[in-house]
# Entry
Amino acid sequence: MTHSAPPTEGKTPAGDPGPDDGRTTRPGLLMGRPFGIPVYVSPSWFLVAALITVMFEGQVHDVVERPLSYLVAFAYAVLLYGSVFVHELSHAVTARAFRLPVRSVTLHVLGGETAIEREAPTPGREFLIAFAGPLVNLVLAGLGLLTHALVPLPDVALLLVDALTFANLLVGVFNLLPGLPLDGGRLVRAAVWKATGHSRNGGIIAGWVGRAVAIACLVAGAYLATYGTGTGDGETGIGWLALLWSALVASFIWVGATQAIRAEHVRDRIPHLTARRLARRATLVTADTPLAEAIRRAHHDHAGAIVIADHDGRPLGLVNEKAVTATPEHRRPWVTAGDLSRGVHDDLTLPADITGEDLLDALRRAPASEYLLVEPDGRVYGVLATTDVDQAFTGI
# Structure
């Protein structure tokens, strides 16, 4: 249950450009757009909902007869993820209040994730965005305690209130653990950022603390599996389930913390990223040129890309590298280069001197596999492939 930092975190800065038409894969089923923010539910949620229903049904059966007990247990699973949804929506709304673009909210097997397009500009705003989620859960837990104490409820409603109170308390406290990718790690990052004046220092420290938290979760699960239950068959099964779940949570935290550390190292390289240095030399051909001839010319020119141009040399399209590779050699004399090209519109045409964050922002605005680089006078300098941008960050 965490909000995500900038798009560079957990991937190369160019991101996954996806198909050439710019469409991106949805993270799950679209459930709605509260405040204009798309909310998705991952298919993995249904598996968890079924597991929660089966596990909680035993308690419900003490007060409700079957099969109604299964319906009440499922209602608890839905309400539990409703609490997670409110947690994530709190991150999103707070980020929106600070004019940070929010891409989506996704509920999945381990809780949820809020995808925020850009990093908060100050440690104070980072702190508030991170704290908004756990704060809502703790408030909901407090309201649950007040409801239990002050409102007379039937047994089923009281069971659901108590279960949700415990769940919100657990979610709130767990997310305050001081390590990335948890919200508590964001708080540590913000605090170190404020103290040192460098967000990078906070990210590195919070990432290493996150790794320690992951190890602690795994050790706690092993302890509960070994000493926290009795020796009966039912208790043994619960112990192994606790170990399995703690291992899953620990791996999630470890991977997230590692990605956060890596993201800081990636940011160190961003200022040195230049399109001109990464560009491939381009061979210009007309659209009716056979593909085999276009490839021959590219080899002769020691070029790594093919650009469609008119007879005056004005660029009209980019030949897709993957499409060329997928075309069998025996068909290349009968296929024209124009058949494998896409038009060059403004978003796919970049100045050859673009660098750093400006370059990455341009790639994110119009995801594609290739971009045309031009000189200030409009002459073609070359082609920038996103695979080459990604390659610049490998080995980090």
Q: What stands out?
A: The CA atoms of residues 222 and 243 lie 6 Å apart.
